[in-house]
């Protein structure tokens, strides 16, 4: 087609209103299975992604990311600092703070008093020198031999939205493609009846408002819209518009789609717009998901011991425990990337009241997920990640007592853990100073962390690009982002 003619056709009123009015619905359906536009044809298998990927044999076939939105306190969970007990309510030394940028929530404080953790820690056996883990995480202690705990994560972002966006898309500014979208684009789908990238928003127990999260965190950005994450809901249809309208039978829907396909073929011949071709595939994907998604979300065949392992909340749709169980079921069915967002970790005050509730939400279920995957022989090729967007300060925000305190945002160091495919189990990587304020050993930046995730999935992040606005866009940015090889098998 003549490029000028194609451009003129793309700007017609009909195309403008179609894209404006149907864009969100089309995008949601368009991702179904992350498949190619032509994958709607009978007998076609799941999309294979880019022909040159993976770059090398992957350790992981799929990944599950447990994102603790709001920033868990590393000081009260993983980064044990016993010397702080003797410094209760003393001012944080300027030699430690070193003029660090502060948020507006504490920048006007007259003092920055040291707030030691009120929680007891235990050094539990792993496969190295042991790991210090808080009493708040009794189930996590049990799986210390499975975990690679990274204590030296750091970021430049100091506020929630840019910090979460940074982790999910590799940039603090909105508009870039998310990690899951990159994986869908590069590696494709393993299942022709389920999305390549699924997202769940779990409920939380801390009795306070939580930081908002936005669908751009699992969006496709500049990548084709079919690669964005599909949100699996806990109420109503698991996926929007999944059910047929009342009075419409499945065979009726089939006949309607067949007729609509013929009309769309004529439109394709007339306009040459590839989005028409994609729309044909979207309708077919949605038709198949009407059968596959209800089967996915039906837990009636799960044995009682499964619910006992994940905890009583696993029977309640939308809880973290239920989402973790769904993540295992998605992994079983070949979903490439599953991301669970669990909000409520932003404890600027009342850590004594809120943090135990948040830990209780996730501790048993995360342990059950790792155990479940291992018992099914899936942990060896499934990567699991747990962590938030930054850490919390050693100094108190607001009033300090021995019974309660709050902590502000802290980007200089925080803790995450990884388990499964290709990761060294039972190690602690990186170290921080006595105040858990600065990294003192083996720093890991967000870009290096994402580069390591891609590496485990068989992707060389430097060679994984997409041309946009005249640049070769990368998840890991333009600066050096070495893979953290010391934590890999």
Q: What is the structure about, briefly put?
A:
With 489 residues, this protein is of the alpha/beta class.
Produce the secondary structure layout:
Elements: H1 3-10, H2 13-30, E1 62-68, H3 94-97, E2 121-124, E3 131-134, H4 138-142, E4 147-154, H5 160-169, H6 179-187, E5 197-202, E6 230-231, H7 250-271, H8 274-297, H9 304-310, H10 320-332, E7 337-342, H11 351-375, E8 382-387, E9 391-396, E10 407-410, E11 414-420, E12 427-429, E13 431-432, E14 439-441, E15 444-445, H12 446-456, E16 466-468, E17 471-473
Parallel strand pairs: 1-7, 1-8, 4-12, 4-15, 5-6, 5-7
Antiparallel strand pairs: 2-3, 4-11, 8-11, 9-10, 13-14, 16-17
Helix pairs in contact: 7-8, 10-11
Number of strands: 17
Number of H- or I-type helical stretches:
12
SSE string, helices as H and strands as E: HHEHEEHEHHEEHHHHEHEEEEEEEEHEE
Number of domain units = 1
C-alpha Rg (nearest Å): 24 Å
Shape: globular
Distance between the termini: 51 Å
Q: Architecture, according to CATH?
A: 3-Layer(aba) Sandwich
- What is the strand content? 15-25%
Largest sheet: 9 strands, mixed
Q: What is the class in the CATH system?
A: Alpha Beta
CATH topology: Alkaline Phosphatase, subunit A
Poorly predicted sequence stretches spanning 5 or more consecutive residues? 1-45
Give average pLDDT, whole number.
Answer: 88
Estimated structural class: alpha/beta
Helix share of residues?
A: 25-40%
